[in-house]
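hey so u asked for the seq, here:
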Amino acid sequence: MQTAIEELENKGKAAKAASRKLAHLPTEVKNKALVNIAESLISREGEILDANRLDCEEAKASGMDEAMLDRLMLNSSRLQAMAQDGRTVASLPDPVGETFDTRVLPNGLHIERRRVPLGVIGIIYESRPNVTVDISSLCLKSGNAVILRGGKEALRSNSALARVIREAAQAGGVPGNAIQFIESPERELVSRMLKMSENIDLIIPRGGEQLVALVTENATMPVLASGVGICHTYVDRAADPDKAVAIAFNAKVQRPTVCNALDCLLVHSEIAERYLPMIAREWAKAGVEMRGDERALKILSSFKVTPASDSDWGKEFLALIAAIKVVDSLDEALEHIVRYGSGHSEAIVTEDHSAATRFLEEVDAACVYANASTRFTDGGQFGLGAEVGISTQKFHARGPMGLKELTTYKWVIMGSGQVRP
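ran it, structure tokens below
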């Protein structure tokens, strides 16, 4: 009988072999498989949700926090959204085979770069069953095989989803071994997976700081990491207060348990007395816990606001909690973001074009916004169909990572007998 380690290694070899076939599959075949997956997610909803219900019940009984429970939970509308994302991926241009930087050298050589798949993508993730679908869809369309290793808290959900995806993709003409799922929750499998550079070309961790650190410190293959999202919204002195209320409310409340939700609200002192009671009123209705600095506390004395501690600055809350700080200038807001930001998503609300321009130019983050909610930092919202994660790295991908971020390129040179002198 195979051990879990032997099974993992065999799946790695099978994925590597499948990747060579998948790299050359026609676009129509890949698109058909993606449509099959979307349809199967809907037609087999009962099977998927039954598995997810068991995971959620067990996770809740174990004391899992609300943010993680929200990420774990599936329902009909979330499955519908996942299916629609898959259809969107099918409708996008196929990156494989795209040529660019084409030119003819003085010696007559015709040279170009051609986009090709990376090969086999390994994904290690926690709690989020939607990742199983998103990653599989993007890998399939970009011509990559995938090895999925989810967390034990979502084992039933991920197993059901992977089974549905694999069967639907295979029915569409995709090699059966192109999508591999690791059923065993044994921890040592992660350590072994991180050493399988002969069969895994890129590893992607999706989860908390501990998981990302474990992967980046121990992997023998390149790592594409999704960083922590500590997101600020700065309300400038020239902001439209009503617009700023709507943006900050959406950024905090629309879905507070995700990485692009607002964590810290920075407000210029010249607008603070007018604006802060407006947003505090709306946040209070939504149950947001507000933690303010001394000036914010004074302005919001009639609201329930607790004093912010040093640890509240630079914290990803993943809950209905927001830190509030009053600043005296755009410079001070920028300095605060430099000190406490994570390079994820940062926003300014202002009607001053020069202030907006300066913010967009000077803030060093994957996504910078003027007069919009940071909640838009998402592959689906950016037109990528789905995403493999949101990278706060600068090499080789940054922000929401879609199809092109799962490819590399090769130089293609056509000659007519040239030799180097």
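The CA atoms of residues 352 and 417 lie 60 Å apart. The first strand starts at residue 99 and ends at 104.
lmk if thats what u needed
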